[in-house]
């Protein structure tokens, strides 16, 4: 990183303005999660359908995110930011006045497009303009803003839904969206010249086929099982998209996402571990509000308040852990994070669901994610060649979003299977959530093993650099 690039107030404000756009999009997502039972009743849809307001949006966000490396080369940072903010604002306005599920979904999808542009842009600006010795802190500060959204979203959404109806959730965030747009217009800078780069349409279509096929496979499995024509078609699309893109991109001069990045063991393991833990994280965000309302018959406000301490802890830990990374490296914050994540998942898998156990288990999980997630990404990308930084950001952003969609769809599928085969809705929901947490514990142990291997690789790489 050139010495003349300093961490100026204008640079900090530009990053925070992008983070605010991401904040509103994610806050709406988490605010709606606690209102799913209300939305199911008012919009006349079932649990498997209503979850598309989250997983469908995250899927579309992932499809847009994989374009971010091309967008970064082709368009100015400010142009991308303004487009993302305005598209998202249109979606918010549609949802604020809609009462039919298709229109509500359309509004949410537009918000997904805006988030797909904005989320990787934030990290691209950080890795492009922030000095290397301040990256961990700056990633943590940006994550603090973004992470406040799941902290405020559930309590905020639950209160507004109970007091004024779910439409008010969208009206309240409009001033914040306008503030972010004005701040970004005034502060976002361009330090690298753009260039005319051809858009890799074939690669994008293949990756989109992979994303869509995987999510529909999980969704159809809950309704019809795997051994039927629709499920097999979706599974075939998933496999075709993945293998097709790999074979295609190997021979492409400038693919959207280079498969050669995954030849690096540290990067590959970091991405896989991030996918697993983000998937586990989002099963918590789905299962806890559903369980509290359908099993314990609590209100959406109570469900939101249960999630509040953990999500608030995630926000603050992102900054603290980023500072620890800058001072001590990846091992200390990530070991703390893994211990907390594993404890939280085990807590929920073993103990019965109550308001107290849900609050404690979710808090442990979120504190751990706050320590681990940003540092895992920063460590992986910082140890790659600079030419891979933008693509690496795109991959991590896409993985975080797609794994979130998979996590929600998977939890919804498991719960729906047990609901459809139980004597009562409450009993079926309880069994489905219990098995979701058991699955989460197995996945967490696998991800932790990957992360420990990553830290050994990082130590070895550092030792090689010190010797050189």
Which labels suit this protein?
single chain; mainly alpha; globular; 468 residues
Given the helix and strand composition, which structural class is it? mainly alpha
Biggest sheet statistics: none
Number of extended strands: 0
Span between termini: 19 Å
Q: Into which percentage range does the β-strand content fall? A: under 5%
Multimeric organization: single chain
Provide a count of the helices: 17
Q: What is the percent of helical residues?
A: over 70%
Can you tell me the overall shape?
globular
Average predicted confidence as pLDDT? 83
Q: Spans of 5+ residues with little confidence (pLDDT < 50)?
A: none
The secondary-structure element order is: HHHHHHHHHHHHHHHHH
Q: How are the SSEs placed, and which strands pair?
A:
Layout lengths: L8 H25 L2 H8 L3 H4 L1 H14 L2 H7 L2 H21 L3 H29 L5 H30 L2 H21 L13 H24 L4 H22 L14 H30 L5 H29 L2 H20 L4 H28 L6 H32 L4 H43 L1
Helix pairs in contact: 1-7, 1-8, 1-9, 4-7, 4-10, 4-16, 6-7, 6-9, 7-8, 7-16, 8-13, 10-11, 10-16, 12-13, 12-15, 12-16, 12-17, 13-14, 13-15, 14-15, 14-17, 15-16, 16-17
